[in-house]
Amino acid sequence: MSKNDIGLVGLAVMGQNLVLNMANHGYAVGVFNRTTSTTDEFVSSKTDEQKITGYHSLKDLVDSLAAPRKVMLMVKAGPAVDAIIDDLKGLLSPGDIIIDGGNTHFDDTNRRTKEVEEAGLLFIGTGVSGGEEGALKGPSIMPGGSPAGWPHVKSILQDISAKVGDNHDIPCCEWVGEAGAGHYVKMVHNGIEYGDMQLICESYYILKHALGLTNEELYKVFDEWNKGELESYLIEITRDIFTVIDEETGDYLVDKILDTAKQKGTGKWMSQHALDLGVPTTLITEAVYARCLSAQKDARVRASKILGGPDKKFEGDRDQFIEDVRQALYASKLCSYAQGYVQLNSAAEHFGWKLNNGDIALLWRGGCIIRSTFLQDIKAAFDKNPELENLLLDDFFRNAVENAQPSWRRVVATAVELGLPVPSFTAALSYYDGYRQARLPANLLQAQRDYFGAHTYQRIDKEGTFHTDWIRERRLDS
Where is NADP(+) annotated to bind (predicted)? Predict the structure, then answer.
């Protein structure tokens, strides 16, 4: 009997769709789920052309695989992954490969890569983005882990990934780096996704509340935006959302949805590690906080009856302001990606990873939630200068942000004057203004720290570390 090319453990929707994707590309796939009825029901639904075989034990699954055996895990991140890895260690042979395709924290992948390699096996921790549809039709795949394992899984993962390019022949899957690098890149992808979604929501909020645009008008605005620099999956689906009618009430569905956003934690992971690294990933962190504030619905309703704000109306040129919002959204998105890549560079230095930033941009061009036109511009920027320390310093992005500045500032100022919250727009602009300053007020901050805690400071005019007895040196008016 011929052997299976790969095995997959975990038949929730993502796992099932990845299996179907592999089978549709001609691979023979063995599957296992701890609930045997799930395995049996899934296998019974396959077509005759799809080479999918179900197994009721991990041992039988492993025995069915061609060497080097490859087992992909699509189970809930956390202890369940460790438990299955422990079981597989006793079943696999040296050189066999375990692939974790779940939404795993990069630190767990760092640890598991080391532990699996010490057991004589190879480990691939890979981010998979694109949701259920992407898993079936072609996701963005971001693999890292044991470099020796990559040649054995490369063809499968690249075949099932999304394809881009003029001939649709460039796979959105390429080796990222050692240990947890793949899952780290996926985490950054998700953080940028948080930022993109929040920026779009702030654009919607301004247009709706400052200009009073209807859903029909919002559809036209986002449809037009999707034809230019902002062309992307998220702009496209936002446009479509404004057309959907609630069958029960006959009203637009978006207006019936409770304004409390949920999250799975990956945006928070990125912000937490940004703090650990000491990098200013401010926009994405504000996007995380915006979701947290939205979740305090009852408190906000109570506060809305007590706290006051401006009672002003927009009085400018409506068409010009719509264009201003478009420009502000574009410039803020550029800052979001710039911050994401700064964090990637810092993490690469911290962990000793050799990341290819241009290739990472290509991984996100198809299949994933943040796919957009200008990712090609990011690829071009890093191709031109692989050592580029910040995207904002590239000529293309510098010119784009400078051209957008007047609009960007008008939007933020108008939102503040009207009392409309735009935390991510504001964070993006503040980051840009802070980054372009040769001197910031941290000199005063260091003086404060030295005053109350003798934390010392450095000077601009000579080398060394200094401390001042501020109480003795201060001069007070008598």
Answer: 10-15, 33-35, 75-77, 103
